[in-house]
Specification:
The chain has an 8-stranded parallel sheet with strand order 1-2-3-4-5-6-7-8. The radius of gyration is 17 Å and the shape is globular. Helix 4 packs across helix 5. The protein has 10 helices and 8 strands. Helices cover about 40% and strands about 15% of the residues. It has about 260 residues and is an alpha/beta fold. The chain has a single domain, classed as Metal-dependent hydrolases (TIM Barrel, Alpha-Beta Barrel), CATH 3.20.20.140. Bound molecules: zinc ion.
Length: about 260
Amino acid sequence: MQLIDVHCHLDSPVFSGRLHDLLETARSAGVCGWITSAIHPSNWKAVAELSRQHAGVYHAVGVHPWYCSDDSQPLLPSLADYADEAVAIGEIGLDSKKMPFPMERQLEVFTVQLGIARELGRPVIIHCRGAFNEMMHIFRKEGAPPGGVVHNFSGGPELAKAFMDFGLSFSLGGVLTWRNSARRTRLLKDIYPHDFLLETDAPDITPVEARGTVNSPANILYNLKAAADILEEPAEAIAAASTANAVRIFGLQIERDFS
Ligand SMILES: [Zn+2]
């Protein structure tokens, strides 16, 4: 089995000094790739550095809606330079549920980053909570991103269809292990196999099996098992589909890197 975690934050200080060991543990459980996302210009260099230091680690650069501070905006034009080595523009998006910065600012920062992704032809990693209509409006006005994922997607099947029409897929993680609903089952059945990917969002969104601990990269196995239970499909088949989607969407070279 070859699993890829398409959304995590490996540069988090909670992993410092033990990232190598955590990645080895995950590797021995079948995880062969990670896309670690930046959240602010101050960590663009750090995520790039991690992908140089650790085999199988790729990175995305962007400004997260919770971190679109005054000092991030003037640095947005340089995102294009940092994106050179990155596999995606992320984590970018809109959030009306938690708003350290007003929606107007979030919209501006998101639109600039979407423009850079479109210009460079890079996929995106999107965070979107309570602002789906605003995001659709931007896609209609500015054009859709060149592929990518909505991570930790919280919408239902109808909304998923609208995102898929814009060429986007979905990555899900720890929420799959929480109490599930008929709505989520229908969502998964609609997006699997072609538009379903696995993630951890480590160190956040710990699966229930590991509740009370920092979410670590190997916990993706719990998310895989939960997806297998919901979809009533073999875990191996789900892992293969998710990995094939990650390779296709983010242009990863896993044969070259992991053979
Ligand atoms: Zn995240």
